[in-house]
Amino acid sequence: MNISGDTPGTDWVAYFTTQFPKDLAAMAALRDELAVRQGALNAAEAAMADRQAAADELAAAKTQADAIKKDASADSAEAKAKLASVKTREAAVSARETALDDKTAAAEADLAVRAKACDSREAGLAKLADDLAAREAKLNADTAALDARVKAFQEKVANLSV
Fold first, then answer.
1. CA-CA distance, 68 to 61, in Å (whole number)?
2. Which residues of 28-40 are buried (b: 16+ CB within 10 A; e: fewer)?
3. Which ranges of the chain does DSSP label H, i.e. alpha helix?
4. How far is it, in rounded angstroms, from Cα 27 to Cα 76?
5. Nearest 10 degrees: CA dihedral of 44, 50, 54, 59?
């Protein structure tokens, strides 16, 4: 405030008619610019928040991916171990199968030899049975002839003694 009064007073009518609309327009422009800047600041803050959220989600995704990789690695190791076990069992089964095939072939060959020997023995036994039957028939005929001779001899002896 001016206490000496050496400055002229303010002409408020002139101010409100000429200067005030200019000042009001400048303030409105300033207000719009502040609103734009505030919007830019809000957008920047929102972008920072979005970046932070994205970083958090990325960290969570990496953690989840690491867990999935760890589980997959464990599953892969287990599958490889099972595959190795299956291959070992398959080789053992194949070896047993080969050994069994060899044993079966040897047993079949031995059985064929034995069957041939049995057939040969059966033929020999049949021939022997025929030979024994012929000998039995001859023995029976010889026994009958001997019995007839003994009887005839006994009759002669009996006739001589009388």
1. 10
2. eeeeeeeeeeeee
3. 12-14, 20-161
4. 71
5. 90
Which two tokens mark 145?
Answer: 């002839």
User: Phi and psi (nearest 5°) for 42?
Assistant: -65, -40
HSE-up (13 A, CA, CB side) for residue 62: 6
Q: Is the pTM of this model over 0.85?
A: no
pLDDT digits (tens, 9 = 90+) for 35-62: 888 888 888 888 999 999 999 999 999 9
Four-point Cα dihedral 20, 24, 26, 27, nearest 10: 130
Q: What does R_g of the chain's alpha carbons equal in angstroms?
A: 66
Neighbour count for residue 44 (Cβ, 10 Å): 10
Tokens of 23: 């000042």
pLDDT in tens, 69-79: 999 999 999 99
Provide the token pair at 66: 């690491």
Tokens of 105: 């072939």
CA distances to 36, 83, 130 from 87, rounded to whole Å, are 72, 6, 63
What is the C-alpha to C-alpha distance for residues 18 and 11, in angstroms, rounded to an integer?
A: 11
CA distance 142 to 129: 19
